[in-house]
Design brief:
- This protein has 142 residues and is an alpha+beta fold.
- It is built from two helices and eight strands; from the N terminus they run ααββββββββ.
- A five-stranded antiparallel β-sheet has the order 3-2-1-7-8, with no helix packed on it.
- The longest helix has 23 residues.
- The protein is rod-shaped.
């Protein structure tokens, strides 16, 4: 006797279950977070937001390359009668023992040892461009 009443009840329960399942299949979103927290998480992950839109992916931070090194300009060489020599590079008097005088008394020059270990011979008024590895005469009118 229970069978005739049980079939309509089971049929009704089955219809309600499929209707509820199709309504919920749209999207449940994420649980246990506020909408703002979900948006922040989506933005950090670069995933689709709860509204269905693609969250923007933050651009990678690109650092500018370091500026090219300043050229070395030999401004002048003074050799005193007591034997001490003063050398000016980029307008600054140098006390570096790695820089050795080269050339003659009439045509002085300096053997400049760079931090890379490379050695360059400069005459007063010449400039060495580290990037291009070139030596040129400095224009006195500049």
């Amino acid at each position: 006797m229970m069978r005739p009443t049980l079939c309509p009840i089971l049929g009704l329960a089955l219809c309600l279950a499929t209707a509820g399942a199709s309504a919920q299949s749209v999207s449940m979103g994420r649980l246990f977070n506020t909408p703002q927290e979900r948006s922040n998480l989506d933005a950090q992950r670069g995933t689709v937001t709860s509204t269905g839109a693609q969250a923007p992916v933050p651009a990678p931070v690109v650092q500018a390359p370091p500026p090219p090194p300043e050229p070395y300009t030999l401004n002048g060489i003074v050799k005193r009668s007591d034997g001490k020599t003063t050398v000016w590079i980029n307008g600054v008097a140098q006390e570096d023992q790695n820089n050795v005088l080269a050339g003659t008394a009439k045509s002085p020059a300096l053997k400049l040892k760079l931090s890379s270990g490379r050695k360059v011979i400069l005459k007063p008024g010449q400039s060495y461009n580290v990037t291009e590895r070139t030596i040129k005469d400095v224009d006195a009118t500049q």
